[in-house]
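User: Hi! Is it possible to get a structure for several chains at once, not just one? Here's what I have:
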Amino acid sequence: MKKLAMILALMLLAATAALSLAGCGGHDDKNTDKVDSTRSQIYAGIMDGGWGDAFLVSAKGKFEEKYKDVSFEDGKTGVQVMIDKQRTYNGVILRESMKTTFNEIFFTENINYYDFINAGVLADITDVVTAPLTEFGETKSIEDKMYPEEKEFLKRKSDNKYYAVPFVEPYSGIIYDADLFDSYGFYLGKGGGYVNAAGEKSAGPDGQTGTWDDGFPATYDEFFDLVDYIDGSSVVPIIWSGQYPEYASYVGTSLWTDYEGPANTRLNFTFGGTADNLVSADAAGNLTPLGPTEIGESNAALLGKQAGRFYGLDFLRRLVLSGGYHNLSYSPTLSHTNTQQEFLYSAHMSGKKPIAMMCECTWWEGEATPVFEEMAVNDASLGKKARNLGFMPLPKATTAQIGSNGGKQTLMQLNENAIFVNSRTAPAKLPLVKKFLQFFLTDAMMVNFTQVTGNPLGYNYTLTEADQAAMSPFGRSVWATKMNSTIIYTGADSALYLNHQGDVLNTRLMWDAVIGSTSYRFPVTYYKNNSTQPTKAYFDGVGKYYANIFGEPK
Amino acid sequence: MMKKEKHTRMLSGAVYDLRVALHGRFAGKRKPNRKFMSKKTKDMIFYTVLIAFPIAQFAYFYVAVNVNSVLLAFKSYDILSGAYGFAGFSNFINIFKEFSGSNLMAKTAVNSLVAYAVGLIAGVPLALLFSFYITKKFPGHGFFKVILFLPSIISAIVMVVLFKYFVDRLYPEFMLRVFHKTVPGLLTDSRSAFATVLFYSILVGFGTGVLVYSGAIARIPASLTEAAKLDGITSLREFWYITLPLIFPTISTFLIVGVAGIFTNQLNLFSFFSSSAEYEVYTFGYFLFAQTAYAGTANYPRLAAYGLLFTLVAAPLTFGVKKLLEKLGPEATEF
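Assistant: Yes, the chains can be modeled jointly so their relative placement is included. Here is the combined structure:
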C-alpha cells in the first residue's frame, strides 16, 4: 500500500513537473550557435516577445554573408551574430542586467529612455544614426527615416546625442476573421444590410469607396449593429483576455487617439500646446465643450477631459452592455495566448462557436505562431499565411467624424520600444556593432523585418506590392493600417511625462479612474459590475485620477 | 637468498641502534613546544574568518540597502539630469495625498489585515490540528502529509494554474451540470475573487506551518504524553493541555513573523493575475511589488517613502505583538 502511494505521488510530481515545463511556453529556440573563434562576434539581446527572433535570425544570416570576407579584428575574418532571447530583456530588469551582461546590442520594449541613459548603460550612437547609409547603397541616414517626434525625443537636448533608435511600431485594436466575415457575410453593404467579401461594400470610416476600409463599420452605432447581427448568427462577436483586461482598454486607447487626432493626442506626452477637444459630460452622454485651452504642467489633469476619452469609454461600455463578448472574457484563466488560441480554433473545432473578432495588438500573430503551426499540421489552409485575418479599421464616434483627418486614422505606438547599444561594448568592437545597427535599419532590412514579423518598424519606409505578397494577410492589413494612419510616438522630454512614464503614462496604464472614492483600473470590469452607470461616471473618474496624480488644474 | 636476508637484518639492527642512541641522548630534554600563536588568537582568527562574509553580506545587503532606502525617501530625482536632490517630506506629503485622493490604500490595508486575520484565525489553528494529527499518526496521516506538503513542492505557478481552472472553469461547469445553475467562476466574480485567493493562500500555506509545528510536537518527550495517557487523557485534552503550551514559543514566532508580513504578503496575486490584478484584491505586498516592477528611477523616492511609512507601522506593531504574546502566553519550556 505504501509502495503504491509512493508510486502515485511520484507520478503526480512528474506530471506537475511536466506541466511546469510546458508552462514555460517551450521557448527553447534560444540561439545555440557555438562561438566560431575564426570570426568576430556580435552579441545581440532580444526580448522574447510577440515578434519572435526570426527577423533577427534573418538579419544575422544576411549580415554574416555580406561581411564573410571582411576582417574586423586581427586574426579573424567574417562576423557571427549571436542571438540571446530572454523574457527579462525589457524594462527595469534589463536596465540593471545591462551592467553585467555580455550582450552588445538590444532589440526590446518598455524602455524608460532617460532612465537608461542616466544608468550609464547606453552607448552614444549619434555617429551612425546621423551618417548616410552609403555603405549599404542608400543616401538617407537612420535619422532621416525617423519621425520628427522620435528625433526630438531621442536626440537628448543637453548633448545633442542619440543613445537609442526606434524599434517595432505596434498598435492596438480589433482583429477580425476575414474568412468568417466572408462566409457569414459580415461586411456592411453599400445600400445597407450585410454582404460577403465579393458584395458591394459600404464606404467605411474614411467615407470613400474603393479604399482599404470598405465594408467595415463607419461609426460606433454601425459597429454595435454588427455585433448584434453577428450574435444573431450563432457566432461570438468578440473576445478579449480575461487575465489581461487591458487588451480591451487598448481598444479604448485607439478610439480615443483616433478621435483626438495627432495634435491633441501628443499633448498627453508633451504637456504643451492647445487642447481643443476638452469637454464635460452629463449622464445622458451630452458633451459640453470647454473651449480651446492652453495646456501646461500646471493644468495637465485637464487632459483627462478629452472628448476622445469619453468616446473611447462609451465604446467600451456599449461593448460590455451589448453582451456580445466571449463567456471567458472576464476569467483570469484566459491569458492573452489562450485568447489567441480560442480565436483561431473557434471556427475550426466542432462544439465551439466561431469567434468573429478579438481585442488585441498587432504583435499577436507572432505570439500565436505555435498555434498556427499546430493547426497547419493537419490542414495547411489553417497556417499563418493561408488564413485571412485582419486588423480592423477603427469606427468613428459620430457620423461627423467620418472621413476626418483626411480619412486617416490616428493610432498610438505602444510599449516604448527601442534598439540600443550597450555601453559596456569593448571600444574595438563598437564600430562593428554599430555597423550591424545601420545594416538592420537599411530599407531592405526594414522591409525584411516587416515581412517576417508582419509588424512595421517605427520609421518612414515603403513596401512594394511584391514585398507585401510575401507577408501573411494579417501582416498586409497591419501595413495598410500604417499607410492609412498617423502614428503617435509616445516619447516626449517634458518633465511631467518623464517622471510618470513608468506609472501613469505607460501606454498600458492609461485608464485608471477614481469613482466616488474607489479606484478602478479597467473600464470593461467597471461596466460589467456597474451596468447602470453612464459613460460619464468613468469619464469623470479618469479626470479625478489625473487630478490626483498631476494636481488640480490651475 | 640467505646473504640478502642477512644484510637486511644487519641494516634494521643498525637503524634500531641509532634510534636507541638518539633516544638516550635527547629523551626528557625536549624543549617546550613554543606556540606560534596562542589558542585565543587562533580562535579569534577562525571566528573572524567564519563570520566575515556573513557580516559583510549583512552590512551591504541589509544595512546599506536600508540606510539608502531611508535616505531615498527624503530625496527627489530629476530624470533629465539624472541627479538626486533633497526633497524634505514632500514624498510623504504626496503619499498622504494619494491616501486621501481615493480609498485604494484603505482598501489595500483592509485586504492585508484580513489576510493576516484569516491566517491567524483559520490558518494557524488548522495547521496546528493537522500537525498534531500527523505527528500522532492518526488514520490517514500519510495522505494528509502528502496533500499538505504537495503545494510546497510543486511550482507555485503550476499550483495557481490548477487552482484557477478548478475554481473558474470547473466550478461553474459543475454547478450547471449538477444544479442547473449558471454561476460565474469564483475568480471571475469580483465579489468572490478576494476570498478565493485568500482561501488558496491558506491552503498552500499549510506546508511550512505543518512542517515546523510537527517538528516542535515531535520534540515533546514521549514519557510526558505516556504518563498523561496512563492518567486517561483524551487526544483533545492532550492537544490543549500538553501540546499547545509546550510548542507555544514556535506558535508565537509564527504569529510575530506574520505581523511583519502584513506589509509584504502578496497573497500570490502576481501568480494569479500577473500585473493586471483589480484594485479590489490589492494587498500592500502586491502594491509595492507591482509599483516597483514598472517604476522608473523617478518613482523610487516615493516608493522608498512608502516602505519607510510601512516600517513605522509594522515595527512597533511587531514588537507589541511580541510583548503581548510573552505576557499572555503560557509559561512553558519548549523541548
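Confidence is low (pLDDT under 50) at residues 19-30 of chain A. Chain A touches chain B through 51 residues (CB under 8 Å).

User: Great, thank you!
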